[in-house]
Amino acid sequence: MPRRRRRQTRTAYLFLLPGLLLFAIFRLYPLLEGLRLSFTNARLGRATYQYIGLANYTRLADDTRFTVSLWNTAFYTVASTLPILAVPLLLALALNRGALRNVLRGVFFFPFTLSVVTVGLAWLWLLDPVVGPFNYYLRALGMPARSWLADPATAMWAIIATTVWWVTGYYLVVYLAGLQDIPRELYEAAALDGAGGGRTFWTITLPLLRPVLLFVVVTHVIGSFQIFGQVFVLTGGGPGDVTRTVVQHLYETAFQNFFQFGVASAMAWVLFAIILVFSVLQFRLLRGHTEY
Amino acid sequence: MRAPRVQTIALTLALGLLAVIWLAPIVWVMVTSLKLTADIVRLPPEWIPWPVTLEHYQEVLFSSSRTARIGRAFGNSLVIALGAVVIVVVTAAMAAYPLARMRFPGRDLVFTLLVGSLMIPNAVVLVPQYVLVQQLGWLSTYQGLIVPEAAMTFAFGVFLLRQFFVTMPGDLEEAARIDGANTWQIFSRIVLPLSQPVLAALAIFAFRSAWNDFLWPLIAVNKPEMFPLPVALALLRSAYSSESYGPIMAGAALSALPLLVVFIVANQRIVEGVRVSGLKG
After folding, report:
1. Are A22 and B278 an interchain contact pair (Cβ–Cβ within 8 Å)?
2. Mutate to test the interface with A, among B124, B215, B277 (most CBs of A within 10 A)
């Protein structure tokens, strides 16, 4: 019945039309337009612009602030990955069978409902070097107080701690769902064989959580490379350029510093390329057999 | 039997303690916002705001000061977030339905494209999106904030709803078709009412994204009266000296309020939405 088939195709695309228009105009087009802009010397307010080949990209290689922000972003991503993997996983394991599971899950999830600005302001106040409670309690415990956000040695770690607090609840829920999907019988069989808690974790839980771990790492890495809000509120990229990140540099290049859209677009595509490479690598590394 | 029980109690106590510590930063925000200015910086930290005052809320909501536009920003954020929710839910439901329940050429391609686009970092489309919105004359307007926010969440919405539509049994649709209902009627009168939980989950997710987004409104708005809450808050911080944490924390507490309410009412929906989002991995 080709006629009916044709009618159904038409209906299907009519349903898809509004969403696909939205998607094409505000998602797909900007993505490709950005690639085009990265080969031009476009600036805000400049009526005409020329194609300048790879000049923007070669310029980036010489831009020491870009290189620094790239390293900072990479450091942040690498250093935050282990806590982001482990903290919610430990919580999920502890919560999984517990009595207060749903209440506690709600408590840990709550920070994730906050905006990055609210989170930043809360921690800014908490970590205030003079009147903040964090330093007060440290002193009370006999430990040295610090200007956590103004000290080059600790600024990035403070941002990592803030972020872990912010997003742990999200990954906790993801892990809990993953743990629920592991068949009970596997644990029962393991218990019959006399396997202890540690062994079951390494031989059953962790291998079967592999797809979830992959999701967490990939999502986290994609998000980390775009870190901006925390830095904007907590440190402004300082002290010096110690916490300056790629998106912050991109933002300043495009919207604060002569509005260099071409250069900023090149940065965006370098960032995109890095994220893609990392994601593919992670899929390769972590993809495995999950049959059971 | 005794040992594991003691262990369970100890574990629960430890988790409870950790949960209290976990909430401390946000409790501290609330407590600070209710204190008299003189009490805010007092050490040791006082966790009970006494005497209580609402002066900081009054200041950020109603003062005529040029920097304190939190009241207006709160309204802006509501308009933007609700607008984005409507667009996302309508377009994503309409798009997910044929992708889940019809056969047509190009279906898999469209779906792959949408799911693949979930990997596009928002920061990468920032500059061209700005150029586009500028060309449309939408800078510092509600539509200039609503539509791009909706576009950011659309693909995820399609993914979430398709997962749900696929699992619906086909009998009801079949019966309605035999009764002469057309596709639109089946979609709007049978499929949508049956999908209320997942639609609510998507609505909350879209609300959260739009309510909390910071980077896009930071560049797409340059009139202070159009700032949404996160931007107004971030700028409020630089407007006050560090001693006046009161108004800033009042603003921060206000920005947490709507999702706190939603969260208490619909905890399960939110968790469900996150759970499904995790399944795509």
Report:
1. no
2. B124
Q: How far is CA A271 from the centre of its chain?
A: 13
Separation in Å, CA of B153 to nearest CA in chain A: 10
**Distance between CA atoms of residues A157 and A154, nearest Å:** 5
B61 in any annotated domain? no
Write the DSSP string, B135-199: HTT-TTSHHHHHHHHHHHHHHHHHHHHHHHHHTS-SHHHHHHHHTT--HHHHIIIIIHHHTHHHH
Out of A20, A23, A226, the one facing B122 most closely (by C-beta) is A226
Element (H, E) at B9: helix B2-33
Homologous superfamily (CATH) for A38-286:
MetI-like (1.10.3720.10)
Model confidence pLDDT, tens digit, residues B150-209: 999 999 999 999 988 988 888 888 888 888 888 899 999 889 998 888 899 899 989 999
pLDDT at B67 over 60: no
Number of domains in chain B: 2
> Where would I find the H helices in A63-205?
64-95, 101-109, 116-126, 133-140, 155-180, 184-192, 197-200
Please judge whether B94 and A34 are an interchain contact, meaning their C-beta atoms are less than 8 angstroms apart: no
Question: ipTM for the complex?
Answer: 0.88
Q: For residue B242, what pLDDT is reported? A: 57
Question: Quick check: A88 and A171 in contact, CB under 8 A?
Answer: yes
Model pTM? 0.90
Task: For residue A8, give the nearest of B15, B104, B251 by CB distance.
Answer: B104
Residue B36 and residue B143 in one domain? no
- Contacts with A261 from chain B: Cβ below 8 Å: 127, 131
Residues B169 and B270 both lie in one domain: yes
| Residue B115 shares a structural domain with residue B184 | yes
CB A65 within 8 A of CB A54: no
Q: Give the residue from chain B lying closest to A217, CA to CA.
A: B281
Q: Which domain holds residue B149?
A: 69-279
Residue B101 resides in a domain? yes
Token readout for B133 is 């919105």
Calpha distance A127→A114 (Å, rounded): 18
